[in-house]
Amino acid sequence: MKAPAPDWSELPVDIMCDVLKLLECPDLVRSAAVCRLWYNAYSMARRIGICLSHQTPCLLYCTESSGLKALGMYSLSERKAYTIPLPEPPILNWIGSSHGWLVTMDQKSELMLLNPITGNMIALPPVTTMEHVKPLLNDDGVLEQYEVSYYDGEIPRVEDGRGTFSLDKYGDLVYLKATLSRDPLVGECIVMLIHEPYMQLSFAKVGDTHWNWLNMHSYYSDCIYHDGWFYAMADEGAIDAYNLNGPSVTHKRLLPKILRTLSKCHIVQAGWGDVLQIIRKETFNCEQPEGRKYVTEFQVYKVDFDEKKRVKMTGIGDHALFVGKSTTSCDEA
User: Fold this and answer.
1) DSSP letter string over 137-191?
2) Overall pTM surpassing 0.70 (yes/no)
3) Which residues contact 174 (CB under 8 A, 6 or more apart)?
4) Which residues 6+ apart lie within 8 Å of 19 measured at CB?
5) Is 2 a member of any domain?
6) Based on the domain organization, do 186 and 96 belong to the same domain?
7) CA–centroid distance for 93 within its chain
């Protein structure tokens, strides 16, 4: 007599979670459709975030044929492309991604969190609640433009004029990068935004009604969240640390400046857990009429938090480093 086939639908949820965390994103989503028990295990795995660290990165891109209605997603593990429909309102751009969410902006440059797999969207506080922004209304009282005042955290305050931006162009010209402290469905999530003027920082907790400006006199180019702190790349390679979890902001200068040449700096948490500082050295080609910049060298340093120092690295083992405008990652190859 043939033995009955094992009934996978009756596995305990905790064991199912251990299985699901090994799946790649497409298979993980498919598992939720097997039965109610598997859906419950899938929901728990997403809620506690056990799947994110094991995922092979997917490439997200726009296509001319889909326009603003869908994204293309290429699965490196499956070597297969997917089309992901986008919810309304239309998305014009995204300025960062972390914990499976994109930080996107709509046609009025309002920011939203979007999970491209589930379609979940979470609105962030309005543009007009940012420190430097004033709404400009037409004769009918309808928002028409954003006015931006140019000043930073220097005391006494010096305002270097004002500029006006159309609603749809404001985000492209002002937003530089955004990152999240955690998956907003898991617990309290803080969004850190690097923006103009002068590459400053503002943050908001999901559910807040306004943005909070960090009035520091510095220029920031990159930021990550690690062990309860936001670490921001300041001008000339310095690293500032911000703790936003208490009733007041805690700020400290973790590492001093190291650069006096034309370079860009990035900060990233590697797949093995260390935080890395990436220095991208650039040079101008004076023979080009537009003075184009070219990358001449990458330097990688491990950030030693205990000793408060940088340790130069000669390699990153079996990991690959991706350096982008809005996202930098270091993942197992």
Assistant:
1) E-TTS-EEEEEEE---S-SS-----EEEEEHHHHHHHHEEEEEESS-TTTS--EE
2) yes
3) 109, 148, 165, 195, 196
4) 11
5) no
6) yes
7) 13
Whether residues 102 and 212 share a domain: the answer is: yes
Domain count, the chain: 4
Answer positive or negative: Cα dihedral of 216, 221, 225, 229.
negative
Instruction: Please tell me the distance from the alpha carbon of residue 27 to that of residue 49, in angstroms, as a whole number.
Output: 16
Name 250's bridge partners. Answer: 243
Amino acid at 227: D
| pLDDT (average), residues 92-110 | 91
Residue 261 pLDDT = 63
Domain that holds residue 197: 92-217
**C-alpha distance from residue 245 to each of 83, 168, 192, 241, 251 (Å):** 38, 33, 13, 13, 12
Tell me how far CA of residue 315 lies from CA of 196, 300, 303, in angstroms.
34, 8, 15
246: pLDDT confidence band, cut at 50, 70 and 90?
confident
Tokens 């309002």 sit on residue: 110
Q: Do the Cβ atoms of 124 and 206 come closer than 8 Å?
A: yes
Tokens of residue 100, six digits: 């499976």
Do 168 and 229 have their domain in common? no
Classify residue 8 as left (phi > 0), alpha (psi -120 to 50) or beta.
Answer: alpha
**For 79-88, what is each residue's pLDDT tens digit?**
888 888 888 8
139 and 27 together in one domain:
no
Using CA atoms, how far apart are residues 114 and 121, in angstroms rounded to an integer?
Answer: 5
Is residue 3 in a domain?
Answer: no
Say if CB 91 and CB 74 are below 8 A apart.
no
Does pLDDT of 281 surpass 70?
Answer: yes
Measured CA to CA, the distance from residue 326 to residue 231 in angstroms comes to 15
**224 in the same domain as 213:** no
pLDDT per residue over 199-214, tens digit each? 999 999 999 999 999 9
